[in-house]
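Hi L.,

As promised, Proline--tRNA ligase:
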Amino acid sequence: MRLSQMLFVTLRDDPADAEIPSHKLLLRAGYIRRIGSGIYAYLPLMWRVLQKVSQIVREEMNATGAQECLLPQLQPADLWKESGRWDTYTKAEGIMFSLIDRREQQLGLGPTHEEVITAIARDMIRSYRQLPLHLYQIQTKFRDEIRPRFGLMRGREFIMKDGYSFHADEASLKETYQDMYKAYSNILRRSGLAFRAVEADSGAIGGSGSTEFMVLAEAGEDEVLYTEDGKYAANVEKAVSLPIDAETSRFTTYEKRDTPGTETIEKVCQLLNCSPTQLVKNVLYQTVYDNGITVLVLVSIRGDQEVNEVKLQNELTKLAPEYGAKTIISLNVPNVEAQQAWTAKSLPLGYIAPDIADEYINANKQIHPKFLRLVDQTAVDLKNFVTGANEAGYHVVGANWGEHFKLPRLVVDIRKARPGDRAIHNPEQTLFSARGIEAGHIFQLGTKYSQAMGATYTNEQGEEKPLLMGCFGVGVSRLAQAAVEQSYDKDGIIWPVAITPYHAIVTIPNIKDAQQIEIAQKLYTELNQAGIETLLDDRDERAGVKFKDADLIGIPYRIVTGRAIANGKVEVVERATRNSQEIVIEEVTTTLKQWITAAIQVKN
């Protein structure tokens, strides 16, 4: 492609609304154009990158026996109501674009396709003889992000590959899960990316086991905790660990202490000269279920630990049937305004004890009349601990479970693991932290959707059983930007060879020099005929402008028909290393072919 004929406009300055390097560079280099909040046009260079990523995905998926299809973006609300996720996606998380058509029917723009594929399986799969079955698509998805940011990383419209598998038994599901683990690793490796596969929370998708594939980058939104022995890695939302040991309490008798102005852990520990590991803090949450019931949740946890709200939400979701509900609409620490809707009297905030009375709740039909009490494992074994006294300005010391406070019946792990904690698989290993961009996620869904939607098959014994399902997603457009986030310098993008829009760019320094033009056009034609995808910068611009643009757009090899042509050579510059060498004109095509082949094979 000749740049003089291409839609090619670069920017010298960073766009004001771009926050991270990859977002800035893709805009500056003319790969994408912002159309609205979280909505981008993929311009010709970007579309070539996306096509290459998609092709790698297709090759790896097809190699496992998965079959490509295309599912509708418009989805009837009735399907989502069958699975119980309509309210979750339109109210709780609020990420689904929903609309009403001219027939007054509710529809949603698909953020994901579990319901659609399950409905298809329900209608078409009858017997175990049809199993296992694995379908996938590469499709535009829609999510109404509260705060679209970082360009293609968190947009409201994006390209994703999602796949769904159906099985008769757990062994078959796990086999496909392992196939996808290998395929996803291959996709990222072939794309030229450094990544880490980590244990993950299943979130609103549901199911049991799940693994995220994280592209390692400082601007990653996710935190990954891992051990150096390579035997453990998990998203911080899912991570488990052993906390540091609690110090022995210096208090030996139970008594109430005057502790004015100590609403924080730091202040009370300073006043009482104690360690936060000797303290039980009690954190109040308000959760609303999908049937409108509000439940007040009191979490008791060791003073030096933080509540992992993802883990907490998972525990509360398990309890939904006890309140006649299916899922959670919201979970938060209630502010003063929110408390006014249910408090019978003012709460002693900062001084709450594990046994705060249920009489604080002014119950009505929407408010459950009792506190739901949970205790984190870190607080269970504490002896002679410090905690609130249910009275502003006072704490108690020397407290014990079973003696001064009743231990809640629900003992859970809802603490947030953090760097420096000891690993569970080997306490001699400590957890380290890295930032990552989630590029892929695989789930073992089990029967979550098939049971809810009545998708069954007949087994060898003639019995009707729910289908077991797997779900596997790759963010195609996110992966492309993640590659930029992982590989750039002060001058621009450095594309991995496997997914670069073009392998080489031939630059003519002086467009008025007939010999430079002749050799450039000759090389341009030869390279493309040899399968080396090549751009020709034949614009009437200064050489410096052309060199800067070549660096900015990140093409792996730049061929310059400059002064060296007098010696029958051209200058070839490798973008990643900036290594420059003069190569005989007749050997350029062969040399580049070898370099490109070697660069791609390294990742395979």
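The chain has a mean pLDDT of 94.

Thanks again for sending the construct details.

K.
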